[in-house]
Design brief:
By secondary structure, this protein is an alpha+beta fold. It folds into three domains: about 80 residues, no CATH class; about 55 residues, no CATH class; about 80 residues, no CATH class. It contains ten helices and four strands, in the order E-E-H-H-E-E-H-H-H-H-H-H-H-H. Strands 1-2-4-3 form a four-stranded antiparallel β-sheet.
Amino acid sequence: MTNLRDLITGRTSKDVAVDARGLHDFLEVGKDFSNWFKDMTEYGFSEGQDFTPISAKSRGGRPRIEYAMTLDMAKELAMLQRTDKGKQARRYFIAAENKLRDQEVSKLRLPRTPDEKIQLLLENSGEANKRIDTVEERMDDFEANQKLDPSEYSAISHGVTRAVNRYVDDHRLKLTRDQRSELYKDISNGLNKVVGVHTRTQIRAKDYDTALKFIDDWQPNTATKMLIQQMELPLEA
């Protein structure tokens, strides 16, 4: 059985990666890995930003493609499964992310205890002031980029689903899976563009209200409507 601890490599938030095949095995998805991963990338993930293909060999020596994912993508894929395994994986990835963040923040912490403050005062004043300015700038940047808490992320994800279902119901549409997927891609891509991220899991807390407003006001663009109409099963009004 795949262990979640074996899926993550890297020591900082910048170089951490998650093994896609290992996550697939842990989730016990009822579909082969290649087709499952292809389906998952249709939720708005991009090669080179969210995942990277890696040439490898199977146990029998045959060539195959593996994928290294960002921690953000791994969290979203786990959530999309809507299973207990998916919840377990997502909680683990969030805990790993928090641990990395705490380690990075601890390195930026300003002196708090009397001894730390005295030590700082004893150092060269010019260097000390320069160091404090740098730390404060990095702390301000960290606070400005706080991610959504789980309840806010859940509200946005459920809002996206409700918006698509509302559009389908309001227009009395009967859609194939591929047609409905185009609507999800449309709202996901629009949402990411409005808040300036590549994937939904990167949305910052400061953009939460903007994200909700976009979801409430969303309508698919003309290109998406035409693409759906050109698909194998036409829309039924």
